[in-house]
Amino acid sequence: MGFFTRTAMDMLMKTTHPEINRRQCWNLHPHRKPCTECKDICPYGEQIFTRPNLVKDWDPCTECGLCVSACRSGCIIPSPEQVQRDTSAADTDNDTIWIGCEKSTRKNSMVRTCISALTWETLAYLALNKKIVLDLTPCGECENDLCAAQLRKELTRLVDFFGQPMFEARFTLAYEPDEALYHVKELSRREMFEQVSHGSKSGTKKLLQMLPGLHSEDDGGVDFRLLLHQRTKQLKASMETPLKYGYYLPNFTDKCFGCGKCEKACRAGALKLEDLPDGQTRIVITPWKCSECEVCVASCSNHGIDGMKLRQLTTLGPVSVHKCTKTLCKECGKPIAPGSVDGVCTVCRIKARTKKRQEEAAARAKQLREEREAKKAAEEAAKAAAEAGADAAETAVQMAAAPAETAAAGSVPAAAGSVITALTPEKAVPAALDETPAAAPENTAEKDVPDTPKND
């Protein structure tokens, strides 16, 4: 096989680093403080992650799996190689699996960068197949507080999942170098060939699962929680009294009315709302898909989900957790709270309120426009009346000034006639007593002028 062919096959068959599903990241949901757990716990966090949900370069990645176990929302998907490496110990012939970190001086069957790199789902899957011995001898001297806190978190979750009695029966915590030492079971020739054949079949199955195009769209690739679900289903089918496992699921209250916000917020598709024939709606959760991220709790605005509650399940398949009766909105038909007074949803109420305000604003604007037009018309009428009054006054002045001008024009002959009349007193008296218009004195004066020489 040539170099390029080998490289192409390695790229096809191997994925040397985890993958990030950004749609499921906690930082894309409403929160007060951003999550940086994957970046903080990674030994090369500054070189790999530019932001917690955005990768700059995967080259420094050693595929330790710390970011996978630390991710609170399950958005970091492990590579198929990592899944095969972490779960392959379940196919061995030994009844016990010894797990330790690289700093341990003991001999263990599984050696990882840190025990906390194994997710609690992986440890639970291995514990359902074999007994587990956890080598914790280097943990007391470890300076990485984040890994220690993550390990305590994983062990606490395992106790909740199995219960205290079963956890103590399946797990052994070795704090001293001489506790639960590693030993290899001697195999006969037949057992050896059976083991090789079984390992070959298991390896071929894993390789086929890694080929592109053979994954189920619903499964989204091989996942630790899916393997755990398959194992619990097998145990339930083979046991008369199935075991019960503790799993944290959303705790729905009576305030839930099936609005569907939690279903939209769940990026993993673990939560579904189903309408029943009797008019009720039930909420179904698939536990193995649920990462216990509590995004659905944060998305509920009606306090219909009261945190996460530990439930005892026989398998991790779909389970119904709540039933409710929907009350639909009169306007749009969406679910609303049963105690709604007006019978409409919040969106329709806001729309009606906005429409009412718009109508009031339009009526107010129309009223102001009419007032402005009436005021403008009154001003124009007043202006027209003022102009008409000014014209009438001017006309009256002109009319009053016309007789004065006429009287002024006739005063000059009258003055001349007065002089003449003064010379002839006998004719002045009839002129003064005459009630004829002003033209009469002029005529009299004109008649008296020729007579003046005779009097001289």
UniProtKB/TrEMBL annotation:
Residues 430-456 are annotated as: Disordered. It comes from the Bacteria. Residues 444-456 have a biased composition (Basic and acidic residues). Residues 52-81, 246-276, 281-311 form the 4Fe-4S ferredoxin-type domain. The keyword Coiled coil applies. Residues 351-388 form a coiled coil. Keywords: Coiled coil. This is 4Fe-4S dicluster domain-containing protein. It comes from Faecalibacterium taiwanense.
